[in-house]
């Protein structure tokens, strides 16, 4: 969303910029498989959640000109997903009797989808509210007496191609100022959202030791599909 709304990237450019997430998630599969039967799954899950939280922390100082290079902390997110998701499933369902597994699996999927929907709604609300708040705060400073704004305004007027049409020139300048303020407000809102997600993952990481220890399965069950 940041790359599309703020940077104006196309779908192909967005996919290229976030490509590192999938690459590092695939690279982490053999590493996770090696440790899954040797280390307590809770430790692996904590590692994965911590990587995700660290990735969000690395995104906090985001600016409007970030691209694929600055988004390399997504590698931590890819590694974190691989180390967090499989242990979550095993720790949740691994200790249940086969007779209860089917119903438990359905409930687990329901709660996962419900949690995802709530998380998306919260992030969307946070982005909307914080964008409006940051925009209003920035707009308060776009007034006469702001030397930087006046210099930018004058440069825009000098570069305008409206001849002597003063109203058209002023309208163009106002649109440019609005666009710049909105761009920065959106960027600051994404930074706030990354920090909020980081806090959520930090809390989740600290709660993992409360889960009951379950050993990783050595092979697929008869109900696997």
From TrEMBL:
Transmembrane segments: 12-35, 189-211
Coiled coil: none
Superkingdom of this protein's organism: Bacteria
Membrane topology: Multi-pass membrane protein
InterPro entries given in the database record: MFS, MFS_trans_sf
A Pfam family this chain is assigned to: MFS_1
Compartment list: Membrane
Main localization category: membrane
Keywords: Membrane, Transmembrane, Transmembrane helix, Transport
Matches recorded under SUPFAM superfamilies: MFS general substrate transporter
The protein's name: MFS transporter
């Amino acid at each position: 969303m940041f790359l599309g709304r703020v940077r104006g990237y196309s779908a192909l450019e967005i996919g290229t910029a976030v490509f590192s997430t999938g690459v590092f998630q695939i690279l982490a599969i053999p590493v996770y498989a090696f440790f899954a039967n040797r280390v307590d799954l809770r430790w692996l899950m904590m590692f994965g959640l911590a990587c995700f939280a660290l990735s969000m922390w690395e995104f906090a100082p985001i600016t409007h000109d970030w691209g694929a290079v600055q988004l390399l902390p997504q590698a931590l997110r890819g590694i974190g997903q691989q180390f967090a998701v499989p242990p979550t499933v095993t720790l949740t369902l691994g200790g249940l009797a086969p007779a209860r597994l089917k119903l438990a699996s359905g409930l687990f999927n329901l709660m996962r989808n419900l949690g995802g929907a709530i998380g998306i709604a919260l992030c969307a609300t946070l982005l909307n509210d914080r964008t409006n708040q940051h925009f209003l705060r920035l707009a308060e400073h776009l007034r006469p007496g702001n030397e930087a704004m006046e210099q930018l305004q004058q440069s825009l007027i000098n570069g305008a191609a409206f001849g002597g049409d003063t109203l058209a020139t002023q309208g163009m300048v106002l649109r440019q100022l609005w666009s710049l303020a909105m761009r920065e407000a959106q960027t600051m809102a994404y930074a706030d959202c990354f920090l909020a997600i980081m806090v959520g993952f930090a809390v989740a990481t600290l709660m993992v030791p409360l889960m009951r220890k379950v050993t990783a399965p050595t092979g697929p069950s008869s109900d696997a599909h």
